[in-house]
């Protein structure tokens, strides 16, 4: 069973240093054990941090209904193909209809803030990634484009104008990538976004890596092992903040979600369970311990 507390990265780790690119906020930290997430609602420089999440699915209306019923979120229609999600009035993600050229299963993907979109696209393609989508001009919030890493995992890059501040939201507490190729993931994300990597071995022999931007944790990736880790499992997954894991799990199952792993509970960290929504997208429920936040 996967122990998701290890994925949060609170164990002792060793750091792998790499040169920072133009989107990083500082050089690689020497002691990743002391690095934390930026406190919620504390304004800070956004570059190199995950600032948004998107669900790309062929059934956006049905998916919207599922997530609103499960979490009690509100929504605001952006256009015919996209709907913004809001939690307590704060926008944090959107659900978008997959275009005909977007192949593969439905999936959540994070969006990373960068200083220059064209330079970032150039870096992504040089690293073996793809930029198959058109750039979207959002006006004052900047510009964004969906890309794929070298393994085909969807992620977005978001050019945010200089001077804008970012507040970390707590609806989605963490993002992690399940992969079967640690070396290429290290290389791609560290060079694309200037993240340093901190890796630890798990009790089952697998490895978990936290990505660090400057002095703060950004995201993580898990080197998947075993037959349960099929291509369907190899993707980015958001961890949704919930108050009552068991109650939310029960409700999710009643709404036709599927349980991928049994829940895990770890003292001082929290409880976790991975689910698949009725349309194929994976996500994780996370009930944090009061000491965690």
Describe the overall structure.
The protein is of the alpha+beta class. It has one domain (4-288): 2,3-Dihydroxybiphenyl 1,2-Dioxygenase, domain 1 (Roll), CATH 3.10.180. The protein contains 5 helices and 18 strands. The protein has helices at 4-8, 60-71, 117-126, 182-193, 245-254, and strands spanning 14-16, 50-57, 74-79, 82-87, 90-97, 107-114, 136-137, 143-148, 154-159, 172-179, 196-201, 207-213, 216-223, 236-241, 258-259, 264-266, 270-276, 282-288. Strands 1, 10, 11, 12, 13, 14, 15, 16, 17 and 18 form a 10-stranded mixed sheet that branches. A hairpin with a 2-residue loop joins strand 3 (74-79) and strand 4 (82-87). The longest helix has 12 residues, at 60-71. The protein starts with a helix and ends in a 5-residue tail after the last strand. 42% of the residues are buried.
Short description:
This protein has 293 residues and is an alpha+beta fold. The protein has helices at 4-8, 60-71, 117-126, 182-193, 245-254; strands spanning 14-16, 50-57, 74-79, 82-87, 90-97, 107-114, 136-137, 143-148, 154-159, 172-179, 196-201, 207-213, 216-223, 236-241, 258-259, 264-266, 270-276, 282-288.
Radius of gyration: 18 Å
CATH homologous superfamily name?
2,3-Dihydroxybiphenyl 1,2-Dioxygenase, domain 1
What is the level-2 CATH architecture name?
Answer: Roll
The main pleated sheet reads as:
10 strands, mixed
Structural class: alpha+beta
Please work out how many helical segments DSSP would assign: 5
Task: Indicate the proportion of strand residues.
Answer: 35-45%
Number of strands: 18
| CATH fold assignment | 2,3-Dihydroxybiphenyl 1,2-Dioxygenase, domain 1
Low-confidence stretches: 1-30
Q: Whole-Å distance between the termini?
A: 24 Å
Mean residue pLDDT:
83
Overall geometry comes to globular
CATH class: Alpha Beta
Question: What's the helix-strand series?
Answer: HEEHEEEEHEEEEHEEEEHEEEE
